[in-house]
Write a structure and sequence with these properties.
mainly beta, 1 helix, globular, four-stranded antiparallel beta sheet, seven-stranded mixed beta sheet
């Protein structure tokens, strides 16, 4: 089993920044990719950013140039630096892990989510 502990969500004004963290523990040797999804009220969950074990990254167009995903393999921790936040970034953000590229093959493990609220 894999356990995920997310932190860093909160309330921020438009234009502000937040950094999300996700610490992974348990049976993570088989994990290849990690990423962040988000789900806004009334909308489907969507991939925000993903990163492979080798460091290859992918971003949804809406966050390119504003968000940066990174991982510390030694600490088994995933990060999402979010800058220039907009009200439309308001959502519950979920940490996600996969044995393969999650943006191609889907997610094997989900975190419980952390709420990010951006006020205008």
């Amino acid at each position: 089993q894999v356990q995920l502990a997310e932190s860093g969500g909160g309330l921020v004004q438009s234009g502000g920044s937040l950094r999300l963290s996700c610490a992974a523990s348990g049976s993570i040797l088989s994990i290849n990719s990690m990423g962040w999804y988000r789900q806004a009220p009334g909308k489907q969950r969507e991939l925000v950013a993903g990163i492979s074990l080798g460091g290859t990254t992918t971003y949804t167009d809406a966050v390119k140039g504003r968000f940066t995903i990174s991982r510390d393999n030694a600490k088994n921790t995933l990060y999402l630096q979010m800058n220039s936040l907009k009200p439309e970034d308001t959502a519950v953000y979920y940490c996600a892990l996969g044995r393969h590229a999650i943006w191609l093959y889907g997610v094997d493990y989900w975190g419980k989510g952390t709420l990010v609220t951006v006020s205008s």
